[in-house]
Amino acid sequence: MISNHAVQQILLAEAAVLALTVVAVLGHGAWMAWRRRSDPPRLARAQQTLAALLDERPDQPVPADDLLRLPRRLRRQVLTDLSRSLRGRHRERIGQLATMLGVAGQAGRWARSRWWWRRLRGAHLLTQLAVDDPIVVRLLDDRHPAVRCQAILWAGDHADTILAERLMSLLTDSSALCRYTAVDALLRAGPALPPRLVEHLANGRDPSLPTLLEIAAARPDHRYLPAALRLSGSRRAGIRMRAARLLGTVGGDAATDRLTRLLDDTEAAVREAAAVSLGSLRHWPAASHVARLLRDPAWDVRRASGEALLAFGAPGRLLLRRHAHDEDRFAADMAQRILHTAELRPAEALPEAR
């Protein structure tokens, strides 16, 4: 049996804990209310000071000490809020101010933490503030995929020749999220990407070759033409298909000649890609060859052929009207379908042959 004295001691302890909890909750609420009242005016003054610093007018001294007197959390907030709307030289200036105000240093320390969520927070802050910190390059090999993804996003904005090469190696990352993020980073990378991409396409044995071809098609460059021509003769249908798409973005006589030959490929996906590319290039001399695909056994190829003919302008429309009464019911059905769709489009949206 527990004595009455012990019971009283337990009840007193529980009452003390309850009282302390109530005081802590009320104190925290009061502190949060004070922050809500005091933070907006301080942030407004800090934003004005930062705007003056970004203007860099030497004839008007700026009280930068006001920023240093702010709590570090407010320094982070005002810098990140402002960085979202800045580009170019002003964004680089934000990185310099983040270093001056100690925010970049704190982000760098977080990025070196043993805890992955703190490393993620640090890498995210360095990315927001456009700070060029070498620690983020090391995070490309981090053991946690979320941290690697954040480092990949940073690398897309700072891609030089070495980082462009590193991003391409991440296209085979074990994490699907990292692979997709690497594709996005490469699409945003600057002029350092095409020379490295040309070398990988010329190699032809890269395990991420299909993805590299899609990236090249999304960022066309005339330097990709030789590799695209060679890869359009690959034994792999998927490579020929993507090479045909790339040829359609690069253009040129050599590209249209190869695309015309690819209209006779044994794989439906390749024939479809060739027809789409010729249509996007408005290469009307291939109209009669493309029109033959209206009788193709694959529906997607017939549709691509009809849309390409429509893109050719008057020559293509003439062939579509002729095939609208074709003895092949599949060809006639597709030609009629494309012509009826064209009638629903605004006149200014209709393509013209080049």
What does this structure look like?
With 354 residues, the chain is an all-alpha fold. Helix content is 71%, strand content 0%. Among the domains are: 191-271, Leucine-rich Repeat Variant (Alpha Horseshoe); 282-354, Leucine-rich Repeat Variant (Alpha Horseshoe). The model is unreliable at 30-38 and 58-63 (pLDDT under 50).
The tally of strands reads 0
* CATH fold-type name of the domain at 191-271: Leucine-rich Repeat Variant
Compute the number of helices: 20
Helix vs. strand class: mainly alpha
The radius of gyration computed from the alpha-carbon positions, rounded to a whole number of angstroms, is 31 Å
Calculate the mean pLDDT score and round it.
83
Helical percentage:
over 70%
CATH class of the domain at 191-271: Mainly Alpha
Distance, first to last CA: 100 Å
Report the β-strand fraction as a percent range: under 5%
Order of helices and strands: HHHHHHHHHHHHHHHHHHHH
The global form is: elongated
What's the CATH architecture of the domain at 191-271? Alpha Horseshoe
Tell me about the largest β-sheet. Answer: none
What are the segments in which pLDDT stays under 50 over at least 5 consecutive residues?
30-38, 58-63
